[in-house]
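Each letter names a residue; structure tokens follow underneath. Both lines appear below:
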Amino acid sequence: MLLAQGNGPAGHGGRALALGNASATLGGDVWAATNNAAGLGSLTRPTAGVYLENRYLIPSLNVAAAALAVPLGAIEPATAGVPTRASQGVVGIEAQRFGGVLYNEIRLGAVYGYRLGVVSVGGRLDLLQTSLQDLGSQRTVVGSLGGQADILPQRLSFGVYLYNITQAKLADYQDERVPTVLRAGLAYHPAKQVLLLAEAEKDVEHDAGLKAGMEYLPTPAVAVRLGYTSLSQQTTGGVGVRAGDFQFDYAVGWHSALGLSQYFSTSWQWERKP
């Protein structure tokens, strides 16, 4: 059975998808729960989000996800070269569903991210269920680890994420396993309003691929994004808008043979009670 999520878990959030899913270095939002658990360590306010995806305008390839992240402990103010952080890290949960009646995947994930100085670390534990009509369901547990580091504070950062470090097995038949995937990337800010991303992705059983993305903020509340993914040969783009405590992100992807994909996410942050 071909695992429908392809090379490991798909990225979530309209921002990440608009950037070609070059998301190993991204953090500070609830979708780090999927893209790289280490990125949760930069979150300082409780955040909830909803994500919707449609691939190639085919209903059976829809994805829906909901996530929640909550900082733990006191919020420590920024110091020289080190941003604000939650003293005991950030815990998150996410539920996602992919597919239709014939085949679908359900993932329930528990996530933790912690920032220590210029370095962030994180991990995720998934309960994954795959279901194929008339053939039943298979379940397994998948563990993943990630890290991020500021090489040049506010300029250059590095991120790495290893999905399925446990090499979880789905079935004994043909030794069917969940893909084990390593992603590593760089994020560079040539200017405060511009972000450039480059990332490599390697499934242990397949060739490596490259991803690239660019984000430009004409105003603090609006973002324009472009990206490209070599593995899927897909060009992406999108916009993001911040309105108070709400963030809205929309992205599209274009494949020359398969056509259009669409991605949308929204998130809400709120202040913690003392």
Q: What stands out?
A: Residues 1-7 have pLDDT under 50 and may be disordered. Residues 14-72+89-269 form a domain with the Porin fold (CATH 2.40.160.60).
